[in-house]
Design goal:
This protein has helices at about 15-25, 45-55, 70-80, 85-90, 125-135, 155-165, and strands at about 5, 30, 40-45, 65-70, 95-100, 120, 140-145, 170-175, 185, 195. By secondary structure, it is an alpha/beta fold. This is Threonylcarbamoyl-AMP synthase.
């Protein structure tokens, strides 16, 4: 059974955040809130965690996982960003955007796109997510919590706990965080290509 953490959306309890971070470090797969719907997350480098996310969502090997980063400095450790792209990404973070960029050597090969050697990165604008990332000290490997054959992600922590109780290890509930996923922008070629239109405004990339 998954552990359930009821976390205040504006003033997250340090003890609960610490317990969730410890669970992630120990290999746990968690469901947690972001600024654009709930996500599944595991520790960087956890093959088991990634395999479990693929199994829950029925994803293939070409799926781009996302590194949920605390800030731009952390993001810069894991992807290569030239000057033009730097300005565009910096102006859009934190926020509801995922950027696909060439991965650095800091990114485990199993996390990179098998052919393109890219990875998704984003910086969330969410108090609880930011508190967890600060406590963890490294990015969370993440994927939107959208179940197979369903059009929208689940929005309630209790519902996630009820339905995924035996396939995740912990659920962090800080209230409804919406159903619209991030806008995905692929910068791997140097030019902006909008892969998915979502919560983030696309005007600046068109």
């Amino acid at each position: 059974m998954a552990k359930y953490f009821d976390v205040h959306p504006d003033n997250p309890q340090a003890r609960s955040i610490g317990q969730v971070a410890d669970a992630v470090r120990s290999g746990a797969l968690i469901a947690y809130p972001t600024d654009s719907c709930y996500a599944l997350g595991c520790r960087l480098g956890s093959r088991d965690g990634m395999d479990r996310i693929r199994s829950i969502r029925r994803l293939d090997d070409r799926h781009h996982f996302t590194l949920m980063c605390r800030d731009f400095a952390q993001l810069g450790q894991f992807v290569r960003v030239d000057n033009d792209v730097f300005r565009a990404v910096k102006a859009s973070t934190p926020g509801s955007y995922t950027f696909i960029l060439p991965a650095t050597r800091e990114v485990p090969r199993m996390l990179q796109h098998p052919k393109k050697k890219t990875v998704g990165v984003r910086i969330p604008d969410h108090v609880v997510t930011q508190a967890l990332l600060a406590e963890l000290g490294e990015p969370l490997v993440s994927s939107t919590l959208l179940l197979p054959d369903e059009e929208e992600p689940m929005t309630q922590g209790w519902e996630i706990k009820d339905r995924l109780d035996h396939v995740v290890d912990a659920v962090v509930d800080s209230g409804d965080c919406g159903t619209e996923p991030t806008t995905v922008v692929d910068f791997s070629s140097g030019e902006a290509e909008i892969v998915r239109r979502g919560a983030g405004d696309t005007d600046r990339f068109e």
